[in-house]
Structures are given as C-alpha cells and as structure tokens.
Amino acid sequence: MQIILIGMRVAGKTYFGKKIAEKLQFSFVDLDDYIVEKNKMTIAEMVETKGWDFFREKEYEAFLDSLKKDKVIIAAGAGLVTFEKNQSLLEKQKFVIWVKTPEKVMLDYLKGGENKHRPSLTGKSLEEEFLEVYEERKPLYKKLANFIFDTEKDLEEVLKKMKEEFLI
After folding, report:
1. Interval 70-97 mean pLDDT
2. pLDDT, tens only, 86-105
3. Percent helix, strand and coil across the chain, each rounded to 5?
4. What are the two backbone dihedrals, phi and then psi, of residue 150, each rounded to the nearest 5 degrees?
5. Rounded mean pLDDT of the chain?
6. Alpha-carbon distance 36 to 45, whole Å?
7. What is the rounded CA–CA span in Å between residue 26 and residue 80?
8. Regarding predicted confidence, which is higher, 72 or 113?
9. In order of start, what are the domains of the chain with their CATH numbers?
10. Are residues 153 and 147 in contact, defined by beta-carbon separation less than 8 angstroms?
11. Quick one: angle between helices 126-144 and 84-91, nearest 10?
C-alpha cells in the first residue's frame, strides 16, 4: 500500500507525512530528498545546470522507485502533478491525498526564509509566484486526489477518516 501526499510546497506534506507514517507504522519517503540524495546535487543545481525538464524526469524516476515500496507514505514535490507521466501514475493510485493548507499559513511560512533556496519558476516575487502557481495547480490537486486533508483539522480526526475510507 502506498499513500501519496500532494500539495503546494510548505503545505506540510513532509511534516504530516512523517506523523501519519508513524501512526500507521509505514515508512516515509520525501521525494525531493530522495531525488537530491540519488542525484548528488540539489534541486536548484539540477534546474540551474540541466533545466526543469531534467528535474521532472528525475522526479518521475524517483516516484516510480517509491511506488515499488509497500506500506509507504510518499510526500511528493509540489510540481509532481504538472508532469503528464506523473498524472498518469497518480490516476492509477488508490490513496492520493491533497494536503490542503490555508494560503496565508503557507505564505507566512515561505516568508520565514526556510525555502528561499528553491529555484524560481517564474522570476516573480515569492508571494506573486506562489499565488500564481497555486492557482494553476489547485485544479490538478483537486482532480488527482481522492482525499483532502485539511491541515486545520485535528490529525487524529483525519487519520480516523482515512482509516474508514481507505480501510487501513
């Protein structure tokens, strides 16, 4: 069984993914970390030296590798949903969860500076880019997810609902 968490960067996919994995006694994979470790360079370095297409291909390969594991929570990169090959993989999965966090919370976290090492997609200001990209990706998250995890709700309540719906 694989549970894939999708959503914007700083939505809490890694944070909640680790908590869910612990509660369900699953392993946890953060795809961005996996890609960096496997390719021996940061995402920013990959994008800067080889381009976004190269990175998306490496992301796809990492996603395929991760899907071979059983009892795993996979925290996908925010843009995983934008690559058609990944969309096809996601559509075949039973447990795709959109980690949905209020925009203000995500923007406040972004402004905190911990994510400034991420490469820009548009060259616009952090806030402008984030809001623009989120509006573009929201329909994909909604379409590809079969469960929405509202991070404003209690984690235990969400886990209970997941267990009921997914029969975990």
Report:
1. 92
2. 999 999 998 999 999 888 88
3. 55, 15, 30
4. -80, 110
5. 87
6. 10
7. 22
8. 72
9. 2-160 (3.40.50.300)
10. no
11. 40
